[in-house]
Amino acid sequence: MGSLRSNNQPIALVPTMGALHDGHLSLVRAAQKVTQNVIVSIFVNPAQFNQNDDLQNYPRTLPEDAEKLKALEIPVIWAPSPSTIYPDGFSTSMAIKGLDQNLCGATRPGHFNGVILIVAKLFNQTDADIAFFGEKDYQQLAIIKQMARDLDFNIDIRGVPTVRNKDGLALSSRNIHLSDEQLSAASALPLALQMAAASIKEGENIDKAIARARENMIAAGFNSIDYMDLVDAKTLEKLKQWDGVEARLLVAAFIGNTRLIDNIKVK
Fold first, then answer.
1. Order of strands, sheet of 130-134, starting from the edge strand that comes earlier in the sequence
2. 14, 158 in Cβ contact below 8 A?
3. Which of 39, 45, 64, 93 maximizes the CB count within 10 A of its CB?
4. Residues 70, 225: Cα–Cα separation, whole Å
5. Which residues lie below 8 Å from residue 147, measured CB to CB, with a gap of 6+?
6. pTM for this prediction
7. How far apart are the first and last CA of the chain?
8. What phi, psi does 156 have (nearest 5°)?
9. Dist CA 37 CA 11 (whole Å)
10. Burial 199-209 (b: 16+ CB within 10 A, else e)
11. Which of 264, 228, 236 shows the shortest CA–CA distance to 146?
């Protein structure tokens, strides 16, 4: 990877777990607008999975991923083995405090500790100057920014807007597990977010707006909802009332056995 430095352009990293879709490719294209030196990493990180079944069922499509990246003329694909990332005797862990206390952090204990560990290793391995992450994983993006500041990584962390299908559903590698019926029903999630955000901006009580959104999602076919919260966009603290501060409305919910997450701006 050191040879990328020869053209005096910055190195950009797009970290992924593979099963690439247009959302991932939008990150790649955002990176290519900045530099020719784009590294795409593909690694299904066991340290960030809470359940072994979820890890085993995560889609792995490396040959197809490589073809998609070849078409975009990506110079480096970094797809290390688990033994390369976590060799025998590996014994270091990392922890984040504060930003992981609610939202996905509340229902997936230790998940973000695994995220920041692999991201820190990828930063070191690739010597990247810039890294691109999707805003769909908004809590993850905020935590990675905090980690980079705290550990003095001289790297520019950039968020890229969520890419959606024609029905508004955020693209996700997990969508592959949805049946056609579930995929259609899942469009209730972004619609519920949009309606709740609009109601809040019009002055409706946050709890009432969210309660109605949750009811609509359950009626549409979602099994359960982990959370739907309006939070401060910077601190991720839950807001009891909205006074115009930049906020995010975030949700995580199960349809069938598939957990989907999404968020939208409220400002």
1. 76-78, 37-42, 11-16, 130-134, 156-160
2. no
3. 39
4. 38
5. 94, 96, 116, 119, 120, 153
6. 0.95
7. 41
8. -90, 115
9. 5
10. bbeeeeebeeb
11. 236
Report which residue type is found at 108.
Answer: R
Torsion of CA 186, 264, 19, 158, to 10 degrees: 180
Query: Which pLDDT score, from 0 to 100, does residue 52 have?
Result: 85
Note the pLDDT of residue 4: 84
24 is catalytic: yes
Q: What is residue 2's predicted lDDT score, i.e. its pLDDT?
A: 59
CA distance 162 to 136: 5
Contacts of 101 (CB under 8 A, 6+ apart): none
Q: Which residues of the chain have a pLDDT value below 70? A: 1-2
* DSSP string of the chain, one letter each residue: -GGGGGG---EEEEEE-S---HHHHHHHHHHHTT-SEEEEEE---GGG-SSHHHHHHS---HHHHHHHHHHTT-SEEE---HHHHS-TT--------STTSSTHHHHSTTHHHHHHHHHHHHHHHHT-SEEEEETTSHHHHHHHHHHHHHTT---EEEEEPPPB-TTSPBP-GGGGG--HHHHHHTTHHHHHHHHHHHHHHTT--HHHHHHHHHHHHHHHT--EEEEEEEEETTT-PBPSS-SS--EEEEEEEEETTEEEEEEEEE-
Kindly state the tokens that stand for 29.
């294209």
For residue 249 the two structure tokens come to: 């409305």
Query: What are the tokens at 88?
Result: 């025998």
Tokens of 139: 């809590």
Annotated active-site residue in 21, 24, 111, 177: 24
Kindly state the tokens that stand for 74.
Answer: 């990506």
- The whole-number pLDDT of residue 230 equals 98
- 50, amino acid identity: N
